[in-house]
Amino acid sequence: MPGFELFGEKEKLQVQDVLDSGVLMRYGFDGMRKGHWKAKELEVAIADRMQTKHAQLVSSGTAALTVALASAGVGVGDEVIMPTFTFVASFESILAIGAIPVLVNIDDTLTLDPRAVEKAITNRTKVVMPVHMCGSMADLRALKDICSKHNLLLLEDACQAIGGSYEGKPLGSYGDLGCFSFDYVKTITCGEGGAIITNKEDFYKNADHYSDHGHDHIGKDRGAESHPFLGYNFRISELNAAVGCAQINRLDEFITIQKRNYTIIRNHLEKIDEVTFRRVPEGGVENYSFLNFFLPSEELTRTTHRSLGEAGVDTCFYWFDNNWHYYKKWEHLTNLKSLGKLPEEVKNQLPDYKKSDFSNSDRWMGRTISSLIKLSWTEADVVKRAEKMAGVIKTNLNTGQ
Ligand SMILES: *Cc1c(COP(=O)(O)O)cnc(C)c1O
């Protein structure tokens, strides 16, 4: 997945433009910048690649989620439905604006189970936030139908699946709002950065203003701009955006490499009867940043994961025991450990997760191994790795019976 693996001359040239002008900020300084508008240029490139009317760059993927929610008018006491398997940024962004993260089960797509979503809807629900974890997507058609029926917004977190698609549409562009991260380990990187995409003019305008203190960006004098509503600073720097200008043009090249490496490993593992694969919803195309597969039992999966590591295959994840990506280790959320006081609404409305039944999620995650797909591997490297993985899995299946 990581775009940093292929950082090179194209990225350096873009950054050099910014260093030569000395204008490290994305707004203003028109005379000094010698025609370089890297953030604006990257926004045009993202909107074009993602087939949406608008793109707004911000400082991170977490900022993108926060700004997306804020731009849609989500606030204190509103409920946002999110999955049990995701990165902590999901609930951080929801809590940042005073809204309530409502966790629901995942299914064999490893993303939101539409039936669990429908059950979790209350009259305070505003948003359904599927997270396209590890390169593949949620059942977006089912989720969109639910959102239309209950008048909810669909916000796609496509941070880990940029370049994938669903029913011919780039992931992130199917819902009302989509978010990307360009942090250092994502498929394409800015070092740090994120983006919101949308076809809705008012959400875009709100995101543009909100991410820069409420500035309306009318005219050429920043000091004279008005501020129609309260905002914050989630700006990306021009240096980070410059790296992205080079990387966005390489997205399809990166996806092609990922697909080749993914397919080699998958072909080797498919020969083992006990190995099954994550369900990709009909109409979906992955971005191949991970290969996700199931083994027959939790115990076998845990021991196989350990054996893979011992055999030198250090790019496989067992999320079930991971500190960051699964609800079981989110004690800081379940115990609401914050530095300062939280809004009463959050304290009163947050479901008691110690009593929640997420056994359906456990059933899938307990048996899931995700193999990261790297860009720097040669074809010969991948074949060797795939053979090793298949060997380790077979040995564990034999001794585990
Ligand atoms: C990386 C990531 C984020 C947050 O992005 P940052 O740029 O690191 O803030 C959000 N959601 C998912 C699924 C991610 O993988």
Please explain how this structure is put together.
The protein is α/β, with parallel strands linked by helices and 401 residues long. It folds into two domains: 3-250, Aspartate Aminotransferase, domain 2; 252-400, Aspartate Aminotransferase, domain 1, CATH 3.90.1150. The protein is built from 14 helices and 14 strands. Strands 1-9-8-5-4-2-3 form a seven-stranded mixed β-sheet, sandwiched between helices. Helix 6 links the parallel strand 4 and strand 5. Helix 3 crosses helix 4 and helix 9 packs parallel to helix 14 (379-399). The site of pyridoxal-5'-phosphate has 13 residues, from helix 3.
Concise structural overview:
This protein folds into 2 domains: 3-250, Aspartate Aminotransferase, domain 2 (3-Layer(aba) Sandwich), CATH 3.40.640; 252-400, Aspartate Aminotransferase, domain 1 (Alpha-Beta Complex), CATH 3.90.1150. Helix content is 38%, strand content 13%.
Lateral arrangement of strands in the main beta sheet: 1-9-8-5-4-2-3
Largest sheet: 7 strands, mixed
Estimate nothing, just give the exact number of structural domains. Answer: 2
CATH class designation of the largest domain = Alpha Beta
Number of helices: 14
Q: Tell me what the CATH architecture of the largest domain is.
A: 3-Layer(aba) Sandwich
CATH third-tier fold name of the largest domain: Aspartate Aminotransferase, domain 2
Q: Using DSSP, what is the number of strands?
A: 14
Bound ligands: pyridoxal-5'-phosphate
Radius of gyration: 22 Å
Tell me, rounded to a whole number, the average pLDDT: 96
* Unreliable parts: none
Task: Bin the strand percentage.
Answer: 5-15%
Give the helix/strand class: alpha/beta
Give the overall shape, derived from the CA principal axes. Answer: globular
Q: How would you name the CATH homologous superfamily of the largest domain?
A: Type I PLP-dependent aspartate aminotransferase-like (Major domain)
* Secondary-structure element series: HHEHEHEHEHEEEEEHHHEEEHEHHHEH
Share of residues in helices: 25-40%
CA distance, first residue to last residue: 34 Å
